[in-house]
């Protein structure tokens, strides 16, 4: 029982381990077990606290601060070690020549405007390219524009610098020490002669193309090895859906549904062309009756009026019926 | 066709630098997610682990049906999530008839799976079921005491592995200095048998004792559960060697605002914020101020009289 002072205490992690305790195979009950665990735990925590509070402490606003020793148990890292960056081309050259870096001031005195201006950037001091007049030399070409030439030179310098920077970054990437905020993207030059940028393909398109490529093998892509994480092709090759030969019970007639669906589609498209004969006849008759009624009422009211009653010359009432029949065809 | 891709904003650059590999690493972030079927017990377990590790954990609420960490193809999703959220420990919960209340705790190295431990959860008691004095409740993010009891943790291979993983999961931020007043929680892991571990989370009560060291009292507050070890996948030896490496180098700390001048010696810069002395409220109205005011008034009054008399003379 007294061999409990043999704890392994790791102050760096505030951890303690008691390797000597063994539980009886039949613990009495859950509560008893919990109690015993708490008791043992208290002993261990006390042991850690003993050594912890004996460390030299500094007084702080919130309480005593204690510097923990480095932990004894080693835990695996989450990322690899950062590798040092290989020296750039300029750094190598500077080392060889013995060129040392000098601390430069932020502002420099500009002779032209006699003020203090920044060393680089917009409106910088002693800028050789911001002069409005360039004096011509005797051996200058009269057709050449010196301002344009200066601009071109500047562009070339910038391009050169960018290419150097890219080369340095590629060297760093080879050594595994690329700065964390930079990624080198693969330049995809199009196979065609034009300089068009490659079109960005969507996920669905890629999936379709991959499916097409997969099924282009002799066995239709069935026995290809799949990469980890690759999903099966979306369209499994079955393009038509046939109804089962024997209709199960309780579904209703699927064939009837199918044909009905097709019929409805056709009707809805051409509904303006289909003529409902009965409806047409009815509407015509109703119209005619309304007209006759209105005329009768007019005639009845107009007898006592100033206006002459318009005598409607009804030619052949029977013929109208006949013409109706003809229309209805 | 741009070859160099950089962060477009300073904030983006800082975020990327936070995720870069460092010489000395601070605590690992945890990713908590679950598979297609989770029991209510498992859901509670996952949410409680998330609460215990609030600052350094990310909990996904969607179902993930294509994660099978023990199979060779089923871990791509996990690695992708680990890359996106910058988490290097994950806790994956799933429930099936064969493996009820299953919890897989795994670690990643360089965003590839490093090792895995699979445990089943039994006899789970949630934080709400414990009643205790609210003043004792441990604060979020405090560094815990971790204790392991039982010879099983030394003898059994799987329990050894589980011990390491649990230490990594629960240890909190890796700090050098701690405030002794802020110690308020402890985790107790007990090896009940060769494949069962009892875990409980307690709050600490420091009582006065005769010496500097206070007497510790543990009060059970947090979740308590039994872990039944099912499977485990130890790390690859070569990767393990790489991951366990340490250097003696300390990260270079730049001393700011100090210059060493040849003539003046060591010179430092001090920046003081603008003290608006005119706007500062005076603590109490000193009696002298009142007297000054009175005197000033008198002066003004006498001055006026003089002016008045002068004017009269001029008028005349």
TrEMBL record, chain A:
One of its GO terms (cellular component) is preribosome, large subunit precursor. The keyword Nucleus applies. InterPro entries: Ribosom_reg (IPR007023). One of its GO terms (biological process) is ribosomal large subunit biogenesis. It is found in: Nucleus. Its main location: nucleus. Residues 308-329 have a biased composition (Basic residues). Residues 69-88, 129-162, 286-329 are annotated as: Disordered. Keywords: Nucleus, Ribosome biogenesis. Belongs to the RRS1 family. Involved in ribosomal large subunit assembly. This is Ribosome biogenesis regulatory protein.
TrEMBL record, chain B:
The keyword Nucleus applies. One of its GO terms (molecular function) is rRNA binding. Its main location: nucleus. It is found in: Nucleus, Nucleolus. Residues 28-238 form the Brix domain. Residues 236-260, 274-316 are annotated as: Disordered. Residues 292-316 have a biased composition (Basic and acidic residues). One of its GO terms (biological process) is maturation of LSU-rRNA from tricistronic rRNA transcript (SSU-rRNA, 5.8S rRNA, LSU-rRNA). Coiled coil: none annotated. Keywords: Nucleus. It holds the Pfam family Brix. The keyword Nucleus applies. One of its GO terms (cellular component) is nucleolus. Belongs to the RPF2 family. This is Ribosome production factor 2 homolog. It comes from Acacia crassicarpa (northern wattle). The lineage of its organism: Eukaryota, Viridiplantae, Streptophyta, Embryophyta, Tracheophyta.
């Amino acid at each position: 029982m007294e061999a409990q002072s043999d704890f392994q205490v790791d102050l760096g992690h505030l951890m303690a381990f008691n390797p000597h305790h063994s539980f009886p195979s039949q613990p009495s009950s859950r509560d008893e077990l919990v109690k015993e665990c708490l008791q043992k735990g208290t002993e261990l925590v006390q042991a850690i606290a003993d050594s912890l509070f004996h460390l030299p402490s500094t007084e702080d606003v919130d309480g005593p601060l204690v510097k923990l020793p480095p932990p004894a148990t080693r835990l695996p890292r989450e990322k690899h070690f950062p590798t040092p960056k290989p020296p750039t081309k300029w750094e190598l050259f500077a080392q060889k020549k013995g060129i040392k870096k000098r601390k430069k001031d932020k502002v420099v005195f500009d002779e032209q405007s006699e003020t203090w201006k920044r060393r680089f950037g917009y409106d910088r001091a002693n800028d050789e390219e911001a002069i409005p007049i360039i004096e011509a030399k005797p051996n200058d070409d009269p057709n050449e524009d010196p301002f344009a030439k200066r601009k071109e030179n500047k562009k070339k310098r910038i391009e050169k610098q960018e290419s150097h920077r890219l080369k340095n970054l590629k060297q760093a990437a080879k050594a595994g020490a690329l700065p964390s905020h930079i990624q080198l993207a693969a330049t995809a030059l199009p196979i065609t002669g034009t300089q068009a940028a490659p079109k960005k393909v969507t996920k669905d398109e890629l999936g379709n193309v991959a499916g097409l490529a997969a099924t282009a093998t002799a066995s239709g892509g069935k026995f290809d090895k799949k990469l980890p994480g690759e999903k099966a092709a979306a369209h499994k090759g079955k393009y038509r859906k046939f109804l089962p030969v024997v209709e199960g019970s309780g579904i209703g007639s699927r064939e009837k549904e199918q044909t009905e669906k097709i019929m409805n589609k056709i009707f809805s498209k051409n509904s303006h062309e289909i003529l409902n004969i009965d409806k047409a006849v009815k509407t015509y008759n109703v119209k005619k009756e309304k007209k006759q009624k209105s005329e009768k009422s007019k005639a009845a009211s107009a007898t006592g009026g100033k206006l002459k009653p318009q005598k409607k010359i009804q030619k052949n009432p029977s013929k109208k019926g006949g013409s109706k029949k003809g229309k209805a065809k | 066709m741009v070859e160099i891709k950089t962060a477009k904003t300073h904030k983006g650059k800082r975020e990327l630098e936070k995720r870069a590999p460092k010489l000395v690493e601070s605590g690992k972030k945890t990713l908590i997610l679950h598979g297609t079927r989770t029991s209510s017990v498992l859901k509670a377990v996952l949410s409680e682990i998330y609460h215990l590790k609030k600052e350094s954990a990310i909990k996904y609420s969607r179902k993930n049906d294509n994660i099978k960490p023990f199979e060779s193809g089923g871990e791509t999703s996990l690695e992708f999530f680990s890359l996106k959220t910058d988490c290097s420990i994950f806790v994956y919960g799933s429930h099936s008839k064969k493996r009820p209340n299953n919890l897989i705790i795994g670690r990643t190295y360089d965003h590839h799976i490093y090792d895995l431990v699979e445990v089943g959860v039994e006899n789970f008691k949630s934080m709400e079921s414990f009643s205790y004095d609210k003043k004792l409740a441990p604060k979020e993010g405090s560094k815990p005491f971790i204790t392991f009891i039982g010879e099983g943790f030394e003898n059994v291979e799987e329990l050894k592995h589980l011990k390491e993983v649990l230490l990594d999961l629960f240890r909190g931020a890796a700090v050098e200095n701690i405030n002794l007043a802020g110690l308020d929680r402890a985790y107790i892991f007990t090896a009940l048998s060769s494949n069962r571990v009892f875990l409980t989370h307690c709050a600490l009560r420091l009582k006065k004792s005769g010496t500097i060291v206070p007497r510790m009292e543990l009060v059970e507050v947090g979740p308590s559960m039994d872990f039944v070890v099912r499977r485990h996948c130890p790390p690859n030896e070569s990767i393990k060697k790489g991951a366990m490496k340490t250097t003696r180098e300390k990260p270079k700390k730049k001393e700011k605002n100090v210059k060493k001048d040849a003539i003046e010696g060591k010179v430092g810069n001090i920046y003081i914020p603008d003290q608006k002395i005119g706007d500062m409220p005076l603590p109490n109205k000193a009696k002298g101020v009142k007297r000054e005011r009175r005197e000033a008034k008198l002066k003004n009054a006498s001055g006026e009289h003089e002016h008045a008399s002068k004017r009269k003379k001029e008028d005349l």
